[in-house]
Design brief:
This protein is of the alpha+beta class. The protein is 47% helix and 12% strand. The chain has a single domain, classed as DD-peptidase/beta-lactamase superfamily (Beta-lactamase). The protein binds glutamine.
């Protein structure tokens, strides 16, 4: 298959969609990112990479960080985890408070904000005072790249305007589903959202998830086969908040989006893909990115279904 040609076709075919979405503007640092960016990278198991657009341009990974923190707790924490959050799609926006209250402070899944905040709380319990450096270390390790870092300006901006996230953690604390100091946990959560990576780096970082938990290039195991199955299934059912069904319907791959406009997706046993385009649809997922991935599975026949 001529992947490079397919990527170039996709880049042309998504052009009419620019201007139809809206760049995240809840913090100035994200609102400033221009709207017309586009990048798409493929990372194959044999080390080949293909790309189109600004594949080296770093952007804010935002909620894509949730897959890395969840991978860390899955391998470190065991069954206790499943008492503190569920594994069901939320059918609600990523930062919704409503469902969390009537479900007694137990988040629906680890990929909405409430669930990811519980995951961060667990990491703080495991690595007291060092949770963020451990998160960064893990991402560097799975990326096989020691240069990954976070954007301090985005992190400060996040903490100044994260009122809804602060409401979520306080609600969960009232239900005793947060063990640590809420300010400490939010400080880590805002930093993890502010990690900057390019599509090339992100597609490399998630490759182990397409290979049952083992990086096919370095041969390092990060998750057991069963843990990788669990994480991938959550990407398929919960990776796009209340548009997860639509993403599965249109793209047919496990994927995870972030409000920075990035989406990662996996073609099990073959490759990982990352696309970036900052304009979002009404559910907070990259509008052009979703279309690009839909075109990708249509053109290649590589959906899991
Ligand atoms: N920083 C964002 C938030 O917490 C992350 C959400 C997202 O990417 N969907 O609101």
């Amino acid at each position: 298959m001529n992947y490079q040609k397919i990527l170039e076709e996709i880049k042309e075919e998504v052009k009419p969609l620019f201007g139809k979405g809206k760049v995240a503007d809840y913090i100035p640092a994200l609102a400033r990112v221009g709207s017309n960016h586009f990048a798409m990278s493929l990372q194959l198991f044999d080390g080949r990479v293909y790309g189109v657009g600004e594949v080296d341009c770093r952007f804010s990974v935002q909620s894509i960080s949730k897959i890395f923190t969840y991978a860390m707790v899955l391998s470190a924490y065991g069954k206790e985890l499943f008492k503190r959050m569920n594994h069901e799609p939320s059918g609600n926006p990523f930062n919704s408070l409503v469902q969390l209250e009537y479900e007694n402070g137990i988040p629906r899944n680890p990929f909405i904000n409430a669930g990811a905040i519980v995951v961060t709380d667990i990491l703080e319990s495991i690595y007291t005072g060092e949770a963020f450096s451990k998160i960064l270390e893990f991402i560097k390790e799975v990326s096989d790249n020691s240069k990954i870092d976070y954007d301090k300006e985005v992190a400060i901006s996040e903490s100044r305007s994260g009122f809804r996230n602060i409401a979520l953690i306080n609600m969960m604390k009232s239900y005793k589903n947060i063990s640590n100091d809420t300010k400490d946990v939010m400080g880590i959560y805002f930093k993890q959202c502010s990690i900057s990576m390019s599509t090339k780096e992100l597609s490399r970082a998630v490759l182990f998830l397409a290979n049952h938990g083992v990086d096919p290039i370095t041969k390092k195991r990060f998750l057991s086969e069963s843990q990788a199955k669990r994480l991938n299934s959550l990407m398929l059912t919960c990776g796009h908040y209340d548009a997860s069904g639509d993403f599965a319907f249109r793209v047919g791959l496990p994927g995870k989006s972030g409000v920075g406009g990035g989406i990662v997706a996996l073609v099990p046993e073959l490759m990982s893909v990352c696309v970036w385009s900052p304009e979002l649809n009404s559910k907070g997922n990259s509008l052009v990115g979703t279309k690009a991935l839909e075109l990708f599975t249509t053109k290649t026949g590589l959906s899991i279904f």
